[in-house]
Amino acid sequence: MGSELIFRGHEAQPMADSYSPKPLKPWFYVARPIRYILREQRLVFVLVGIAIATVGFTFFPTSRTSHGNGYVSIPNTFVEHDLAHYSQRPLYQQGVGLKTWNSGGKIPLGLKRKGLRIVVTGGAGFVGSHLVDRLIERGDSVIVVDNFFTGRKENVMHHFGNPRFELIRHDVVEPLLLEVDQIYHLACPASPVHYKFNPVKTIKTNVVGTLNMLGLAKRVGARFLLTSTSEVYGDPLQHPQVETYWGNVNPIGVRSCYDEGKRTAETLTMDYHRGAGVEVRIARIFNTYGPRMCIDDGRVVSNFVAQALRKQPLTVYGDGKQTRSFQYVSDLVEGLIRLMEGEHVGPFNLGNPGEFTMLELAKVVQESIDPDAKIEYRPNTEDDPHKRKPDITKAKEQLGWEPKVSLRKGLPLMVKDFRQRIFGDHKEGGATTTI
Ligand SMILES: NC(=O)c1ccc[n+]([C@@H]2O[C@H](COP(=O)([O-])OP(=O)(O)OC[C@H]3O[C@@H](n4cnc5c(N)ncnc54)[C@H](O)[C@@H]3O)[C@@H](O)[C@H]2O)c1
User: Fold this and answer.
1) Which of 211, 271, 278, 388 has CA atoms 20 to 30 A from the CA of 415?
2) Which domain of life is it from (predicted)?
3) What class, spelled out in words, does domain 115-289+327-354+389-405 have in CATH?
């Protein structure tokens, strides 16, 4: 018994019992990080980390800023009230604080571009409805605001039932509050027949309507695009017209409600930009044509096409030597979207520099519809500009934009639409811009 208590540690152990680690298999080293992750719920932490990063990239993509520096700037005008009001919506939709955001930037790999919420005033009209088609097509949600003075539900009714489309009957002369990211402000009668119909209403739409929409842009931090016009150049003394040209406008003529109205709208837009920090864009649109134009609106292309289809003489005002440029509507829509998504305020001329006299245009219409169509001369209307041709160098350089559709290619599409509407061979709203 006693001998069992004797310490024998000093006795040498037989070599066979001594510890020697087993050589490890090569796969052990490969699997080690995986086993490490699986131990003690580390996997859960890794997954949570990935989820947070995904949310971060989704709501704060670095491409949001126009500087491309990855920062989202908060404007000075941003107040707590706005934050409380809009914090219900994700920041990318709020517009608040995204003053320098360029939604057209790069999207992180694997993440889809988020749709925006966009208001198009005058969206049931000719240009507006084609713009709405494009915005819906690329995945945005669109709210059309229109009083249907010259617009038609038929122009947008192919979107009825689409949850990303809403239509509000509203006159922009009255204020309106909507939570949106971008505002395309088109509401205004564009043809002389319509804008001269109620000149006071026209200038109110241009001044009060634009004020209301700029106020909305300021309030919700939305980017605002004004569709101005080549009419701001009046009867130009410079040819072709460059954006720096200030124009030659009669302030008291019958067209002034439109020309001066748009000039004031441009002034308001720039004042909101400089004074209130609203992000703005200005497009000066030159003559545009295409499907869904009002048939009897007195604009020269729609006049000639409708007259030729109805076998009436084509009315040429004056000697027919005054020139215009004609832009197909899909080219304009592309330019408007590029302008809105780009970094430059403008103004930008958006038009087709191809110049036609009225007589040359009549000839193209004769070739496309009826070679026997007669031409009838009438006295010219008051203040009708003699020459109109855009210089689009600025849009080419800064927006990478230029028109692609020639008159001879675009006109047949418009003729097809007019034929359907005039002769009742109807498919309302179905007219597209596709070449
Ligand atoms: N089409 C062109 O050649 C051309 C040229 C220069 C500028 N523009 C500008 O482009 C914009 C669109 O022109 P368009 O050719 O599509 O004209 P349009 O007449 O077809 O469309 C104008 C739309 O605005 C709506 N509207 C008018 N007043 C309104 C108001 N007070 N409240 C709400 N809605 C109102 C009309 O109902 C219509 O739907 C206009 O601002 C116009 O000045 C067009």
Assistant:
1) 388
2) Eukaryota
3) alpha beta
What 3-state class would DSSP assign to 110? coil
Residue 414 to residues 113, 133, 283, Cα–Cα distance (Å):
33, 17, 23
Pocket of ligand 1 (CB under 6 A): 121-122, 124-128, 146-151, 171-173, 186-190, 194, 205, 209, 227, 229, 285, 287-288
pLDDT at 152: 95
H runs (alpha helix) in 101-253: 126-137, 192-197, 199-204, 210-220
Indicate which residue of 92, 195, 233, 258 is catalytic.
258
Note whether 330 and 394 are within 8 A (CB): no
Query: Which uninterrupted H or E stretch holds 409?
Result: helix 407-422
Domain positions in the chain are 115-289+327-354+389-405
**Ligand 1 atom closest to Cα of 187?**
24
Residues 259/136, Cβ–Cβ less than 8 Å: no
Q: Which two tokens stand for residue 222?
A: 């939305």
3-class state of residue 314 by DSSP = strand
Out of 81-90, 120-129, 217-226, 395-404, which region has the weakest mean confidence (pLDDT)?
A: 81-90
Structure confidence by residue, pLDDT tens digits, 305-317: 999 999 999 998 8
- Contact yes or no for 150/189 (Cβ under 8 A): yes
Q: Residue 303 corresponds to which tokens in the numbers above?
A: 């006049």
Q: At what angle do helices 407-422 and 300-309 cross, to 10 degrees?
A: 60
pLDDT at 30 over 50: yes
Mean per-residue pLDDT, 97-112 = 50
- Please indicate whether residue 328 is annotated as part of the active site: no
